[in-house]
Amino acid sequence: MIILWTDALIFILNAIMLGLAFYMHGKEYIKRPMQQIYRSKIGMVSLVVLVFFVLIGLMDSVHFKATGNKTNEIISLLDYWATPLREHGEKTYSAPFATTLYSKEMMTLADGTTQWGYPRLEFGGSHLDEPETQRIPDILQKGLYGFAQGAGLVAFFMVLLWAMLARQHKQFMHSSTVKVVWVVVFVIVSLSYALIYLSAYYHVLGTDKVGEDVFYQAVKGIRTGLVIGTLTTLIMLPMAIIFGILAGFFRGWIDDVIQYIYTTLNSIPGVLLIAASILMVQVYMANHEEAFTSVVVRADMRLLFLCLILGVTSWTGLCRLLRAETLKLREMEYVQAAQALGVKQGTILLRHILPNVMHIVLISVVLDFSSLVLAEAVLSYINIGVDPTTYSWGNMINGARLEMAREPIVWWSLSAAFVFMFALVLAANLFADVVQAAFDPRRAGNE
Amino acid sequence: MTQYIIRRFLYAFPLLMGVNILTFVLFFIVNSPDDMARMQLGQKHVTEQAVENWKQQRGYDLPLLWNAKVQGDEKITKTIFYQKSVGLFLFRFGISDSGRNIGADIQERMWPSLAVALPSLIVGLLVNISFALMMVLFRNSYLEHAGIVLCVILMSVSSLFYIIGGQFFIAKLLRLVPISGYDDGMAAVKFLILPVLIGVFSGIGSGVRWYRTLFLEEVEKDYVRTARAKGLTETQTLFRHVLRNAMIPILTGVVVVLPLLFMGSLIMESFFSIPGLGSYTIDAINSQDFAIVRAMVFLGSVLYVIGLLLTDISYTIVDPRVRLS
Which range scores top for mean pLDDT: A164-178, A393-407, B107-121? Predict the structure, then answer.
């Protein structure tokens, strides 16, 4: 097993989240907003979608060296399970569920004559003898079979859970939110089962210019999107929280210095700062090639750098919010009382100020997530995003947009990136709204 | 007032100095000029002489911060930091790595950027505010809920897809406007329609939501209730009271980005091949032209600082409660 830098940070992030959840569990002040989230159908549905994406991302974050392979490359658990997808490369473009290539070429027939036509794909639909007539019934049959498998699995667990919990938690099992969540889980699992089952026989979303499976690319893009969305916040949070609280609490010259730092950083247009930094990282990597031997390691370092830089450019907004809130909090009676009682300043910060600004932190983390995922695509498009070898939706769009001019158009790469990105960002946006409504004290109690 | 403005101008200086130091660290300390020279000239088979020549042409052959070889003041002035910083502060951006005058390029390319960005901003503002007002007018109805859902959906689509989709459907399939390009004078209009349209459309989701929250905050205030109580209709209250008071945050939000409009939009300009500053920056990034990127970073910060100043001034003009001191 090999732990890349981003993997390690992802695991640390998960550990922190679990720790926080454990710590917060049962705390009275956290119960009310949690219940509000839990009661909201939109919130729970988007949470299920997000969890589904996160699970895929986590599977893609367990890396190890492929055994029994000459190339000795680093692959992830997801790659391992998707080995057929990874290795079933075609020659060039092919449409979703196609059995022939996108472009015509000279073929040698069995009897030795040559013919100008669409050659059959090497893997996609190669089990069919007469693709023209058999293809659609076969797709339907295999799709239904996969769907039934997934549906059966969900139904099994549903019955199991119901049998175990129905008596004690009657209210719980009959609430409408739980029903909606079950329906969503059912649809997601069954559909992904059907897709996985079909992708063993067809290229579900077609293949790209070099014949790589687009479905595989899109699924791999999930991790990149999640890493950018989450690690960036992990990097910026300590800076924003420490600086923001210190500036608001101590005021005076500390406040001046911190304000100066964030105004300076803020005054540089974000994209330009990112561009300048990435340029420098490129130069650094080009001059220190020996440190980045493997392609995967190099791409991973660049991804981490991108998160770092995005973090450095995006902490200022949260810092300013926290400073303003701390300025307000330090005049509160309970803080004044603590000061009068001679409580140490460090303790006041940790016990009284920090817990009371956490709702702002939480809201801004979920709000930032979707914009970071979107930013990744834009940055990749202008070549200052992730490494070109990394699978990401931005790179997919970048590669596919030139193909819009072809006739007939190659729409599948673009659509795949669109659908995956849209699903993730929409879920994140909806969830962010629900979290904001639940945790924002100004909006609390309005429900 | 004048005193305040002068003081703000003086405050801008340390800010720009900070930006300058930051870019200096990024461009000259993280990577030495030698590294950049090798990158530019190709990794292998670079002679020492070629690197020296490259550095000399660009004035990178001096020490970074302290020149021990010369006497007196020149110990500080004959350094890369001093030479390059003074150039930036005087807006003498020097020669790009490909040998063109950056200052002249910027002056020439600023106008196409503005031609795209300004109409996008104005039309976008009008559209967003009218939709937001409409949603506030019909608040707590199905129309508003549908509007909110639509906004979230629009927000969740990457701007890249708006551009690609717009280019494909409007320009390629319907052939209403050219796909991309630019022309001088009035002929540019037909090239500008699509970028402006897409720029407006891609901003609707987040814009309408933002203005709606601004309006909703005002709608709940006491003076609005008074206005309704004295018998004004809902539309009258909205336009006469809510809109006018909500204009304060809206205006300040707009003023701060006004100077930055000159910088243009990176993606728009490169997709529509508009010869503005945005595509200039992208070209510089792709050809790794450090001098241009450094100049653009500095220019962007200058414009932002000007924007902040304008915001403060506009506050005093629109909001009589604010007095600058």
Answer: B107-121
Q: State pLDDT tens for residues A430-440.
A: 999 888 888 87
Distance CA B211, CA A202 (A): 47
Amino acid at B226: T
Task: Identify all chain A residues contacting B18, using CB atoms and an 8 Å cutoff.
Answer: 260-261, 264
Residue A442 confidence (pLDDT)? 66
Would you say residue A313 has pLDDT above 90? no
| Predicted confidence (pLDDT) at residue A196 exceeds the cutoff of 60 | yes
User: What value does the mean pLDDT take over residues B155-165?
Assistant: 88
Question: How many C-beta atoms surround the C-beta of residue A446 within 10 A?
Answer: 7
- A64-73, A194-203, A367-376, B172-181 — most confident range: A367-376
Q: Is residue A277 included in any domain, yes or no?
A: yes
Determine how many CB atoms are found less than 10 A away from the CB of residue B139: 16
Give me the number of domains chain A comprises: 1
Instruction: List Cβ neighbours of A115 (8 Å cut-off, separation of 6 or more).
Output: A106, A107, A109
Q: Which residues of A touch B308 (CB under 8 A)?
A: 267
The pLDDT value given to residue B124: 93
Tell me what pLDDT residue A119 has: 76
pLDDT band at A252 (very low <50, low <70, confident <90, very high): confident
Most B CBs within 10 Å, among A274, A283, A309, A316, to test the B interface = A283
Q: Distance between CA atoms of B258 and B236, rounded to whole angstroms? A: 30
Region of poorest pLDDT, from A88-97, B154-163, B305-314? A88-97
Q: How many CB pairs under 8 A join A and B?
A: 127
> Does pLDDT of B47 surpass 90?
no
- Distance (Å) from the alpha carbon of A411 to chain B's nearest alpha carbon: 11
- Mutation target among B160, B163, B277 for the A interface, most CBs of A within 10 A: B160
Residue A397 and residue B160: Cβ atoms within 8 Å?
yes
Contact between residue A299 and residue B294 where contact means Cβ atoms under 8 Å apart: no
Chain B environment of A418 (Cβ under 8 Å): 157-158, 161
CA distance B4 to chain A (A): 19
Residue A309 lies in domain: 221-446
Residue B96 pLDDT > 70, yes or no? yes
A146 in any annotated domain: no
Which domains occur in chain B, in start order?
A: 2-90 (no CATH), 110-324 (1.10.3720.10)
What CATH number did the domain enclosing A398 receive? 1.10.3720.10
Model pTM score: 0.88
Domain assignment present for residue A4? The answer is no
pLDDT at B258 over 70: yes
Query: Chain B: nearest CA to A338, how far in angstroms?
Result: 34
Q: Looking at the domain assignment, is residue A123 inside a domain?
A: no
SS3 assignment for B223-236: HHHHHHHCCCCHHH
pLDDT at B325 over 60: no
A438 in Cβ contact with A37 (< 8 Å): yes
- Output DSSP code: residue A119: P
A430 touching B, CB under 8 A?
Answer: yes
Does residue B142 surpass a pLDDT of 80? yes
